Fold these 3 entries.
Entry 1:
Amino acid sequence: MRGTSEAERAAARDRVGDLVPLFTEVGDAKRVRVAHTPGSLAERAFRRSWAALCRGEAVESVARRESARAVAAARLGGLDVGTLLRAGLPKDEVVRVLRRSFDAVAEPVPESLRSRLREFLVPEPEEPEGSLPVPDFVQRLARQPRAGCTRPGRPRLVLEPPENHAEHCMTVAVYAVLLSEEFGAEPGRVFLAGLVHHLHNAGMPDSGFTGEAMLGDKLGAVMDRYREEALTELEASGGAELRRAAEREIREIETADGPTGRAFHAADVLDRVLQMHHYAREASFTVDQALEEMDLVHDGPVKSFHESVLARANLTPANDGYGR
């Protein structure tokens, strides 16, 4: 950051680093699903956000509500407002559950932002997700896989399962809100920047850095063509004002010179790298971790019986030949 001392830059690095464990959990919303509706939690939040914006809700309100829900979901997963209300929990108890989950992970978020987000954890009536009207590009981004890890001149490294663009955009939008105070940015603006930064991929398949390099000086024209297609859909669904706001944030994130650009680009690069950490963590996962670190056979009335069965089956870490 310009005009800051080394000590200030070090402190800023520490504050961003403090958020990484929370970001890792929030990012897992790309991989959590429920039975009653299709798509990951992140994909559903992307669809919900666009539906709210297109029906005229203020960007700031959508940004705060969806970011608060994403933080609470770090521990609650798919146990969201609608699920808890359908189970018969009173509204005040639903609020307590949501805030308990939020508080369990939100400590690294600056206190002033944390308190404002927490206020948005309220059980508002929700429309069935399948009935939410959204522009066509929202569905296409949900179907468009991310390219993964590519580099010109090298074979493509395909990582499975791929995240989709709706999941990535939603995660970046939430990260950017959580980083907004650090960079002096407005939460609503950085949230919208996250939602719109891959609009062109609604029509342009993601071939990564490798494919883009093959387009050479035609890359900009191709991206502009498909971005305009999505923006036209957005204007038809949400009006000219929403389109203008989207265009403003697209211009703003062409660089990292201003507060919006810095918060957005910090969120974007963190999500890209944390996604790679996810693949690495998944590939190195062991049964020992499940049993010992994650307490797979957890406390309860039948824990001792479970452990005795695993011992007889030679499936405990203490037994020789474990895992064979």
Entry 2:
Amino acid sequence: MIDLSVASGFVIGLVFGAVDLLSGFCLMSSLRDMWTKSDTRKIRSFATAIAIAIIGTQILAGSGLVNISTSIYLQPSFSAPLIFFGGLLFGLGMVLANGCASRALVLLGKGNLRSLVVITIIGITAQMTLKGLIAPARIAFLDWTRTTPTAVSAPALLSTMGLDDTAARLIATLIASSALLIYAFSDKQFRRAYGQIAAGVIIGLLVVAGWVATGWLAADDFNPIPVASLTFVSPLADSVQYTMLSTGLTLNFGIALVAGVLIGSLVTATLTGRFELEGYTSVTHTGRSMAGAAFMGIGGAMAYGCSIGQGLTGVSTLAMPSFIALIGILCGAAFAIHSRTRLLAFAFR
């Protein structure tokens, strides 16, 4: 019998891989274009994806179709310093490696062999941080800084002000999604960038599809699986481990998602004539990429997600920790992009 969560993850990954390759959907390249070229089309596409994901996710949660409160993003206690620092490391790493975890996977599908090194290092360092050598330090810091606030999401925060749950969810969803969509479509260039608009809408819907797949379609009281959607750091760690020890492990949504993205990108690159083998151009290039990958693996594990996992999927739940992680990622990326020349000259002189 086919595991519905695995099959769904693979199909969602296929679509993500194709759309990402064709559109260049990536938070790092979006920020770089905005800060160095004054081109905001990609960042507005990312904002559109967040808005669509928020609307769809909150409809699922409000209707009771999917219980997102059991997801990793809405746990009752968390460490804000750990999540922020993890996001900071991830943001720095994605600039050094010239792309986030999901983008590296997509680029591998089009023949970029640098990305094979990047995703392997992300997987290994994430596993080290989650369960290996770095895990005791991470857990100790988590226990030391853990807090249990009265509200862990924007709707829950509004509920503490006297609103009922439905009204609080509706108001939070309308404010967040409207602000994002107004920002996105206030630019004439973006309104004419139909490909970027389509990419944002489709990827936002893929987040919703992930929740449906794990929280409703494959839900089984006798064999429960974690409610999850698009994210790449932990799935890359699981994929590396599964590749080595498949006989002792079980396929899951995340591993299938990774495989789907890789194959979707590969097929699309081949059909469109974009497949081309690429490698590193210098020792400096290699060192920078490897360092960035390690930062992403460690940071993504600390922050419980990447620029997609927290910046898109996590934010779709309107969870406070996800906003903290996203702020950390943006701060890390801003520092790396604006200080890149000096930073690299110091690190690799």
Entry 3:
Amino acid sequence: MSRLAACCCLAWLLLLRPGNVSGAITPGAVWLDNRGQQIQAHGGGILKVDDTFFWFGEDRSQGLDPNKRYVSCYASKDLEHWTFRNQVLKLSDPENFGLGWLIERPKVFYNAATKKYILYAHVDDGTYKLARVGIAISDTVDGNYRYLKSFRPLGLESRDIGQFIDDDGTAYLIFESRPTKGFVIARLSPDYLNVEKQMSLVPAPLEGGAVVHYKGLYYVIGSHLTGWNPNPNVYATATSLEGPWTEFKDIAPPALKTYNSQSSTLLRIIGTKTTSVIFMADQWKPKELWDSRYLWMPLQIDGGQLLLPEPRPWTIDINTGEAKY
């Protein structure tokens, strides 16, 4: 590691003190909900309903029933203060997946035609050989979701998943397909209960895929295949979801391994003055998953260039879209 990288890394580590700085989001800090409990929304995603953001993610709390898998839901109007709403999924093994079965990276879509909330997640056995997506459904955003089924989208393996909703309201699933050495961006069926059409195969062996549309360009971010260990996340751009995609570039100094994080979601905040794009990532602690942290930072993004700044406390005005740090 270079001297500059080491200094940057030390400065970042100094930020990882318990608790958010008052009035700010502090990447890597212990993030507490309205109950004073550590937020459990790992590998998660955001769905905005009217003026409220709903954050869904894996609940890895200590003391949970080891035979069940849990997804939690939190609500916020400012992205800083979060109210626990429900464990929307409390699921026993639904299809005899076997010992060590798992649910990862839950993402929720709202289908305006059916008025249903559809939860997608990576479901698998303990050896990661099944490689499927599972679907659950609810009439309300923070209700108890009912498990429906699992399948391999388009007949392909699916591990890490992401979600994307385009400006025209079309919903897409992003999923890693390891045998094809890339990840797929695919359009959902009209009822969102299936995967209908492959838009593109992003030609790189990456996971943790996320997409955002910003000023006429699609930006895709992914993480290299290093399991729980962080690595230099990368990005590419295209004028269409069907590609072609540019060559991948690092989003931060490679030696810092994306500040010890892995991409999960790109959240766009459209305000009256500007549009901000927030990089949402997980800082995994595989031996203490319940204490895994979150790295959220507004990206520097424009004209096909994207940079994740050094993490520090920051604020955002949801109405104007202005992010400051």
